[in-house]
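Let us begin with a simple case.
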Amino acid sequence: MLREVRLGKALRHPNLLSIVDLDAPPSYDGFADLYIVSDRMDTDLHKLARSTTPILPVHLAYFMYQIFSALAYTHAAHCWHRDIKPANILVNRNGDIRVADFGLSRYVDPAAVGEDAAQTAYVVTRWYRAPELSLARAYTSAVDLWSVGCVLGELLNGGAPLFPGRDVRHQVELIVAFVGTPTAGQTAHISSARARRFLHDLPPTGGVALADRFPAAPPGALDLLGRLLAFDPAERLTAADALRHPFVADFYDEAEAAAAAAAYPPPDVSGIDDGVRGGGP
């Protein structure tokens, strides 16, 4: 909780849920509850995707653009969210997005990215978990972009999750069936021989044809989906690159982006875990 509060106060961006106030208890003797006052939002993408409200292509593009904008900001601060899912993406009646719930987020020293010992796979709700989290110890901020791809796919899929795995093994099987059997080069980042052998033993598949799976989806959305759900994290779009993808490009303006970057510079959150009990990787 302390980590989330600290991050919420440090990270200031229009597409992140702001902490407006903390409701302090009248007495700290026996203190057990903390109430956080935040921006008022009407619903979240989990509920919206399952409602009767139609999500038009322009709405979908606007949602995605705002999510990428939020993540480009947090990733520039070397902060990974690590729990992107529809329920953690809040939306109001104007279509404005706020990414919420930084309870699993952490600052990552850029010099330590990719070091096995510094990371744990016990992050991200399973259905939105990138394959490298199940197969490899090391991972990067690309796990957040995979999760965004899962969110996009869910919105295109009528609110049904793309990869509702029963367990880790089933989760990976569903992913491979969807994206296709990865090549040797696409599994080079997986250090575990056992994990590579598991992938090799799966029935070979070319994956699904996105246009057949989502016939009503805008073509630009399908191209974006494919670039987010790349098995190899090195092949995935970054949040900054995704802002310029054709599907969301109508919302991108170079001058506005520069002004926003000046107005909301990424903060230094390197000491966010100092003094946080259990504040490990």
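The second case is a distinct protein. As before, the sequence precedes its structure tokens.
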Amino acid sequence: MASFYAAYDAIAEGLKEGIGVKPFITYHPPCCSEWGTAPPRTSLYFGDREWLSMNMLQSSHFLDPKAFVKSNRFSFGWKAEFNYQPIFDEYRSEPIRPVIDGESRYENLRKDDFYLKKGSWASYDSRNSAYHSIFAGAAGHTYGDNSIYQFF
């Protein structure tokens, strides 16, 4: 697997040079891990980078991550209903940085992404995800609604 650290370091340096001060930077990791890589948490990939201002993760939209991971040839994915687990892990990581779940259960998005028979995440699920994040130490919450997401 290719290393993209030099590219990310150059982007961060370019931002700093361009605006004249250290910018606030985070990285939005993917939902799942490729084989042979760490779970998708920023601290595990960029934790040693001076330019990283905030940790982020994507706790996913998966009711059953094992099925999605297997069908897409990934090695790991978060179970959406337990989003507090990776948040708490990031909260305890060092160096200490704020953490946010950049993508949790989007309201009206189908569970396990596009499987019709499992239904969709409801407003309750989105609120529950927010509570889990905050009580596990997150600095905030990112709300998503599939109806708005489709504008893109």
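The chain has one domain: 16-147. Strands lie at 32-33, 55-57, 76-77, 99-101.
Keep these points in mind for the review questions at the end of the chapter.
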